[in-house]
Amino acid sequence: MRRISYCQAVNEAMTQEMERDPSIFVYGIGVPDHKRVFGTTAGLAERFGPERCFDTPLSEDAMTGFGLGAALNGARPIHVHIRVDFMLLAMNQLANMVASSRYMSGQQLKTPLVIRAVIGRGWGQGCQHSKSMFSTFAHVPGLKVVAPTTAIDAKGLLISAIRDDNPVIFMEHRWLYWQEQDVPEEPFTIPIGEANVLRPGRDLTIVATSWMNVEAMKAAEILSRREVEIEVVDPRTIAPLNDEIIVESVRKTGHCIVADNDWLHCGFSAEVAAVVSEKCFGKLKSPVSRIGFAPTPCPTVRHLEDKFYPNAGNIIRAVEAKLELPEMDLSGESFYSHTNRFKGPF
Amino acid sequence: MNLRFYKKLYLIRRSEEQIVAHYSEDQMKTPMHMSMGAEAIAVGVCEALEARDQVFGTYRSHALYLAKTEDTDDFFAELYGRETALLKGKGGSMHLCAPDHGFMGTSAVVASIIPVAAGCAFANKRANNGRMVTVFFGDGAVEEGVFWESLNLACLMKLPMLFVCEDNGLAVHASKAERQGFESITEIVSKFNCLVYEAETTDTEAIYNLTRQAVKQVNAQLMPAFLRLEYFRYLEHVGVNEDFDAGYRRRDEFEQWLSEDPVSLQRKKLRALGWAEGAIEAVEAQINDKVARSLRKAQEAEFCNVSELFGGVFT
Asked: Best exposed site among A300, B156, B200, B258 by fewest CB in 10 Å?
């Protein structure tokens, strides 16, 4: 065990897997350039050569079909998008080809394809560099959607994704790249489709995705000072959703807030709210609440952007409303922003 | 060789004639995009390929499927949606798939299969296994962005593959004049780093020879090839009927092509090469039997259990 960042964990997972299995290759716009996709692809071009780590034409749609074709022929491609927004160009390939290829072929074909997509917020990235789109991808049967929060999860889930014989969309929030944690050096897997309790608590459950787990943990830490104990559950896998741990937690606490790193309407938060309402109905002490992006495109200027993205402060207010507590003074608290990087660990 | 061509051409024609004959019984509940008129392209190209080579098609792939696999059991079982089919009715006419025969799949969304073929070709190139990938698409596909993306990357990566444009001049019911802001697709494609061929013929042997040449040059010059092969679609866009009364194309044009129908043409060639009428009829009778048996088997087979609905979303 040594302390490494989420970014290094992603890099280590790819490096170790590529060492192990020569059928793996990694490609995408900017993958081998000097920036190395925020450093996540550092060293791969040097170690594995241009055959296994290469840049591509600006053709997200074709390069997605290309990955599918290579996968059908026994390769294990990892396609990288430096912004998830660019991946929308590939929606036809994802929804019409990649997702249905195995099913439609009567299970004759296998599609071991990993698509890494960087999501994230600010600063000033504007409406085309800021999305998450979890539910857009998760809506389509045949695509697995994973969004790890911690460095350990990033490594373990990416290795699982690479070894999976199905298409996996692996979504990395770029503010999480700095998060550090003790991560085992040797390769290990964390199963896709298993939630994780980031913090145990008795009073209220927050189900959070990706970066919102950082905000939820911050909120929980502040609230614990007034003896409100929040349980933070990170589903880690958006699709297929395994709701066991979420349901168990809400049955215990009786309150549930879903803090999604995404828009609310028709989103993953609505899915979780529906599941919790169905499966915890008699145990709920209050209706499920949801926190997410404002229902607008993402603005560029800072003060509007701050209002667009929810944070720990919004979560605390939501908890107070639910538990009928007076609003606490948050003026002395420091929240995460682009200038105040979160460096973990959890 | 000419007999092989004829057997495949006749197999395709006979199979589709049986579809026409039985479609109105409403037991084949899948939209039929018929290949009639295009048989020479599928047979000529596939005969020029090795068995290990891989092909990708479109929603109009009956001819390609039969030319590549020569299987009619799975073919009819899938059209009838029965459990005996490889796909158990999950694909239908538009999504035939037989990877063990190198028939890798199709797309009903125009051009969407082209980049998949490129990826397959890339994997073959990496594995250095000598396999050629051929992707078939219509003249409408060149209007899709992904066609150009795929052509560009195939040329850039020097992929061992053939782009075969089956040009019938129509996208559903729209003529090229209504769709294309250029005169010649081959002229434009020829500016890319690839080889370009074209032909307007219903002669299977001519297409076979052209494809052989293309394959040889792809391997020698290490670049992909683009082949534009013209044909006339005999039937409506989807369905088993003629639609000359719809007014978007003319019967006399059809009759001109029909006079050089690929199947009849090849039959005449066999006769000219000295095959006796009786010998040809014997071959045809054998194929008729094979098709009839497959059809009957399909009609008599069961549907799969409904639990199959949930199988195969993931491994």
From this structure: B200
Whether residue A73 sits in one domain with residue A128: yes
Residues A210 and A127 placed together within one structural domain of the fold? no
Local confidence band at A124 (pLDDT 50, 70, 90 cut-offs): confident
d(CA A231, CA A286): 16
* pLDDT score recorded for residue A346: 66
Whether residue A202 is found in the same domain as residue A177: no
Cβ-defined contact of B311 to A107 (cutoff 8 Å): yes
* Element spanning A196, H or E: strand A196-199
Q: Are residues A81 and A110 in the same domain?
A: yes
| Closest residue in A to B85 (Cα–Cα) | A106
- Considering only CB atoms, B119 lies closest to which of A67, A103, A142, namely A67
Catalytic residue among A60, A180, A271, A305: A60
Q: Which of B125, B126, B129, B159 best tests the A interface by mutation, with the highest count of A CBs <10 A?
A: B126
Q: At A260, which CATH number? A: 3.40.50.920
Amino acid letter for position B153: L
Read off the pLDDT of each residue in B117-133 and give the average, rounded to a whole number. Answer: 97
Q: Does A155 share its domain with A213?
A: no
Residue A171 structural domain: 2-183
Q: B119–A165: do the CB atoms touch at under 8 Å?
A: no
Burial of residue B264 (number of CB atoms within 10 Å: 0-12, 13-18, 19+): middle
Q: Cβ neighbours of residue B146 under 8 Å, at least 6 residues apart? A: A59, A61, A62, A65, A92, A93, B111, B112, B114, B115
Query: Is residue A173 domain-shared with residue A227, that is, in the same domain?
Result: no
B315 to A165: CB separation less than 8 angstroms, yes or no:
yes
Q: Please report whether residue A88 resides in a domain.
A: yes
Number of domains in chain A: 2
Instruction: Kindly state whether residue A341 falls inside one of the protein's structural domains.
Output: no
Q: Does residue A257 belong to any structural domain of this protein?
A: yes
Q: Is residue A188 part of a domain?
A: no
Amino acid at the residue A266: C
Quick: pLDDT tens for A54-79. 999 999 999 999 999 999 999 999 99
Q: Is-contact B60 B34, C-beta < 8 A?
A: yes
* CATH number for the domain that contains residue A150: 3.40.50.970
- Nearest-Cα distance to chain B for A121, in Å, is 30
Residues A11 and A103 in one domain: yes
Question: CA-CA distance, A147 to A235, in Å (whole number)?
Answer: 8
Q: Choose the catalytic residue: A17, A79, A81, A129.
A: A129
Tell me, yes or no, whether A161 and A42 share the same domain: yes
**B58 HSE (CA, 13 A, CB side):** 24
pLDDT of residue A307: 92
Here the ipTM equals: 0.96
| Order of strands across the sheet that contains A168-173 | A53-54, A24-27, A76-81, A114-119, A168-173, A144-146, A237-239
**Which domains are assigned to chain B?**
2-16+23-298 (3.40.50.970)
Is A71 an interface residue toward B (CB < 8 Å)?
A: yes
